[in-house]
Request: fold
Amino acid sequence: MSPTQEPLPLRRMRASVTGTFVVVLGVYAGVTLVIASASWWQPLLLAPSMIAAVWTAARWHTPIRPLATVSTLALGEATWLIASWLAISPAAAFGLSVAGAVTISKLPGRRGTFGALLVTTVLATGLLSLVEHSDQAAGYLLIAPLITAVLVGVFWLNQLAWQMFAELDATRRAETELALVKERFRFATDLHDIQGHTLHVVKLKTALVARLIRADPDTANDELRQVQDLIAQTITQTRSLAYGQRKITLVGELENAKNLFEAAGIQANVTRDGNGPASALDEYASLVLREATTNILRHAQATRVGITLGTAGISITNDGAAPGPTPRLRGLADLQQRVADAGGTLTVNRASGTFLTAAVFDSDDAGTNR
Reply:
């Protein structure tokens, strides 16, 4: 999955981790250049490999071209070799250590083997300090390899943690899709309940009419009228189901919403203001809750949902709203007219990553329109 295809929470997490790496390693490199350099030319020698190392760390999650990887590692090794020979500073291994640790974290396997090889390379190169500066060799033979091993472990664990978060997010999205499939199956079941029996009865009655049309026209006409009434009734029920007008209860929809959010890994909190909406508003509040639940599962990267039941209506808030203007959601647009006919107002609003769906009713008007 490319960074642009990642869900918003993963993109935010990746940006946070990258920023942390860049700041911490950048500060370390800057302080090292100031403290460890005794002559004007030493910072010029160490800076290129350290800059390349920070650049590599900033791309810990992005594939790097092989040529760039080899060049960064070669620059880091060359800098470390010269620094060991001249005993400039054990911190000169920074470039090789960081570039190697990032590269190893991206390998598909045998990371332990390559990590040991990197530490061994740093240690072997540090042996050059024994030639002219044996009194300073401890830093090159102990500190530099130890820091290298720590960096390998940090980037390795970071990569493993990232894979775990990505797998958890993929699981959450799969559960959300499953919840939506279950909802579609529930709709299909309701549709079958409405039409299945009716079509079977219509088939039997039309066969009966075919037999009676000549022998008993009056009875045949009665049967045809019954067929017409049955079809009209089925059309009404189907329309009610399609537009969410079939009799539903707020208690049932609330339980269904909580189950769907739980399956999607979303925390749902329900708050009641008094006894909740009046009985005359129960169906309208249920429809708003059902539509808001579907929209959250389909269009948001929510982690928390708040459902508030008041005496005059219902409001649903969720985080994870995508940036940009408030979308025109067809389901909510269709509900606005029904809520208005019931003497209420349906509003949607998005601000600071939070999406609000609220329906407020005049209980007297709602009771009249029921």
Q: What stands out?
A: The two ends are 50 Å apart (CA to CA). The first strand starts at residue 267 and ends at 272. The CA atoms of residues 322 and 332 lie 17 Å apart. Strands lie at 267-272, 304-310, 313-318, 344-351, 354-361.
